[in-house]
Amino acid sequence: GCNDGIFEWDLETNKVFFLPRFLDMLGYKDEGIGDDADAAIQLVHPDERHQVSSKLEQYIRGELDKFEVECRILHKDNHYVHVLSRAFTVCRDGDSRPHRLVGSHVDLTEWKQHEIELNQFKTTLDQTHDSVFMLNPETRIFYYVNQGATKLLGYSAEELCQLGPRDIDVGMSADDLQRMI
Q1: Which stretches of 6-81 are DSSP H helices?
Q2: This model's pTM is above 0.70
Q3: Looking at residue 93, what is its pLDDT?
Q4: Of 99, 150, 154, 169, which sits with the fewest C-beta atoms within 10 Å of its C-beta?
């Protein structure tokens, strides 16, 4: 019901079992991706594979309290799906190596696309010569100002984000401020 991709990894046999949602997330239906953990790791984007493997080994050795990593995994249609991968130990002999891990993959692809679009929008705002101020209506403090605003007023962005319109224009009335909000 959570729409996450769930997997279980038997560390003794190095076999992984993937639930159907996990496979759907990567474009696989009935054919699956096999059950070999090493082959599954090969689906991780090459630029991130070492980081994922290293964190996983650290977790298995007990050097990390939790396993959690963002990475890209190859989809059957040859594009990458952004995921948040988490795993935890379900069977461990005392302080020794764990026997099984259970984990999930949350599909972050849509969120990553929104993040890219927001960054592009912010870059556009940052580069415009017009002054842009964004104000928190509750605190009446700026939470964003662009380069145009800093050049106009002579403050740094950090300074302006500790101020509000009345701090800049002492002649501004409460009614003027209310109309801005």
Answers
A1: 20-25, 37-41, 46-60
A2: no
A3: 65
A4: 154
